[in-house]
């Protein structure tokens, strides 16, 4: 295996790509200060960011007003019930709102995020430490006692890079797929001799440029299509920013907790400075716990809203798929998969963080603590008691972010699906 020196920026490739796509850099830290120098390009990025954010907020309002503004359209003449219009609008508002509150949270807590990044940069091992640990362990399967453990950079880098790469491709595919359906439908209606042209855009949303028949003109369809495409781009991009940032921060925490477990397991209790090394690792553990708490505090709002919004959106989009036309059902299949995958990823992420922290007490027990001094063994006992409770992401202390929570969301979504279906 080829040895490689890693830097914190190696793990930031996809989060930085997501922020680049949305023309937004929400926080300043020593790793990106050079990008915030006054320039024409920076001003243009901010203007584009303000435009797409405003478009996203306007889309939410357009969906809301569509429920109350009466229009005589070809769509309402096609036996679409009031319930299906309501469910469709609410489901789409869930999607667009998820992008808004994620970006608002990142923007509002940008100083806290920058401070966490600074701490992670200071905590990240230098090239000298990486080289020293790698040479001491020599890439062997079992770590040697007294070598200080080993960081598994390659494993976590490849794992996070693969996951974020797949998510980026999925978001790109879903966005393209969702916006191609209206175009394909329009082409089909234009070339079908017995098919009337409805000029149906992505969603039923009200805009000032509507006439009394909504999208009954080509110009109205084009304007509505591009406005909604911009809003969907912003919504999907902001969701990517939020989830990639969470994945990056959690990957760093798993990397450090995994190293701590290996360092505790290889700790030599018989060494002259064993007590000093143990105290250093305890301080290291305290630092990691505080960082986890800070990360959890920053994203408490998005964790809570993600659980609530995903539960409602999955049920509403699933119900909308069976109540409206086939073309719209095909479109909303992308929305259902979006919330299923997005919720699965961040619940699985929280579950993996809990799992890696559970290894600490086991690593302590399997070290040669019995060869240490009385004070060393006493400290080991208290440390084991402290690590018996794993580190967890929680939504304001209400529920743990885990796969068990994900299964409860699916169960509750199905219950809402049947309850809403009974109203039809």
Keywords:
single chain, 424 residues, mainly alpha
Word description of this protein:
Keywords: Cell membrane, Membrane, Olfaction, Receptor, Sensory transduction, Transducer, Transmembrane, Transmembrane helix. Belongs to the insect chemoreceptor superfamily. Heteromeric odorant receptor channel (TC 1.A.69) family. It comes from Anastrepha ludens. This is Odorant receptor. The protein is built from 13 helices and no strands. With 424 residues, the protein is an all-alpha fold. It has one domain. The chain is elongated and about 90 Å long.
Q: What topology emerges from the helices and strands here?
A:
Elements: H1 13-21, H2 40-66, H3 82-108, H4 110-123, H5 127-137, H6 153-191, H7 218-265, H8 274-298, H9 300-323, H10 326-357, H11 359-365, H12 374-387, H13 403-421
Helix pairs in contact: 1-7, 2-3, 2-7, 3-7, 3-9, 4-8, 6-7, 6-10, 7-8, 7-10, 7-11, 8-12, 9-10, 9-13, 10-13, 11-12
Protein name: Odorant receptor
Membrane topology: Multi-pass membrane protein
Pfam families: 7tm_6
The radius of gyration computed from the alpha-carbon positions, rounded to a whole number of angstroms, is: 26 Å
Tell me the fraction of residues in β-strands, as a range: under 5%
Our count of helices gives: 13
Which class best fits the helix and strand makeup? mainly alpha
Order of helices and strands: HHHHHHHHHHHHH
- Give start-end ranges of low-pLDDT stretches: 70-80, 211-215
Largest sheet: none
Overall 3D shape: elongated
Question: End-to-end distance, in Å?
Answer: 61 Å
The amount of helix comes to 55-70%
Task: Please tally the β strands and state the result.
Answer: 0
Mean pLDDT: 82
Count of discrete structural domains = 1
Keywords: Cell membrane, Membrane, Olfaction, Receptor, Sensory transduction, Transducer, Transmembrane, Transmembrane helix
Protein name: Odorant receptor
Subunit structure: Interacts with Orco. Complexes exist early in the endomembrane system in olfactory sensory neurons (OSNs), coupling these complexes to the conserved ciliary trafficking pathway.
GO molecular function: odorant binding; olfactory receptor activity
């Amino acid at each position: 295996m080829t040895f490689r020196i890693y830097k914190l920026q190696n793990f930031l490739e996809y989060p930085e790509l997501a922020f680049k796509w949305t023309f937004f850099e929400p926080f300043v830290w020593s790793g990106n200060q050079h990008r915030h120098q006054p320039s024409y390009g920076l001003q243009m990025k901010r203007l584009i960011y303000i435009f797409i954010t405003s478009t996203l907020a306007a889309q939410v309002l357009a969906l809301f007003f569509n429920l109350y503004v009466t229009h005589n359209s070809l769509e309402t003449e096609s036996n679409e019930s009031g319930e299906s219009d309501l469910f469709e609008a609410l489901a789409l508002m869930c999607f667009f709102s998820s992008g808004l509150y994620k970006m608002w949270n990142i923007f509002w807590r940008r100083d806290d995020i920058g401070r966490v990044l600074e701490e992670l940069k200071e905590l990240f091992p230098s090239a000298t430490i990486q080289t020293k640990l790698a040479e001491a362990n020599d890439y062997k399967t079992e770590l040697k006692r007294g070598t200080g453990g080993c960081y598994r950079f390659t494993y976590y880098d490849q794992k996070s890079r693969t996951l974020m790469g797949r998510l980026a491709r999925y978001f790109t595919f879903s966005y393209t797929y969702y916006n191609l359906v209206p175009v394909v439908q329009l082409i089909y209606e234009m070339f079908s001799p017995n098919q009337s042209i409805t000029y149906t855009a992505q969603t039923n949303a009200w805009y000032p440029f509507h006439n009394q028949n909504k999208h009954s003109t080509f110009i109205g369809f084009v304007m509505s299509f591009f406005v909604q495409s911009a809003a969907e781009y912003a919504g999907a991009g902001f969701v990517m920013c939020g989830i990639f940032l969470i994945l990056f921060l959690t990957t760093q925490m798993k990397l450090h907790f995994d190293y701590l477990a290996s360092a505790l397991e290889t700790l030599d209790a018989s060494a002259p400075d064993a007590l000093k090394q143990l105290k250093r690792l305890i301080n290291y553990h305290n630092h990691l716990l505080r960082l986890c708490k800070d990360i959890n505090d920053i994203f408490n709002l998005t964790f809570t809203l993600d659980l609530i919004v995903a539960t409602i959106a999955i049920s509403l989009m699933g119900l909308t798929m069976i109540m409206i036309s086939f073309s719209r059902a095909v479109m909303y299949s992308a929305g259902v998969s979006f919330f299923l995958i997005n919720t699965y990823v961040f619940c699985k992420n929280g579950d993996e963080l809990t799992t890696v922290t559970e290894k600490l007490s086991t690593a302590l027990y399997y070290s040669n603590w019995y060869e240490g001094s009385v004070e060393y063994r006493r400290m080991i006992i208290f440390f084991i008691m402290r690590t018996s409770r794993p580190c967890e992401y929680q939504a304001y202390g209400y529920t743990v972010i885990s796969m068990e929570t994900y299964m409860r969301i699916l169960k509750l979504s199905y219950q809402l699906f049947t309850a809403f279906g009974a109203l039809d």
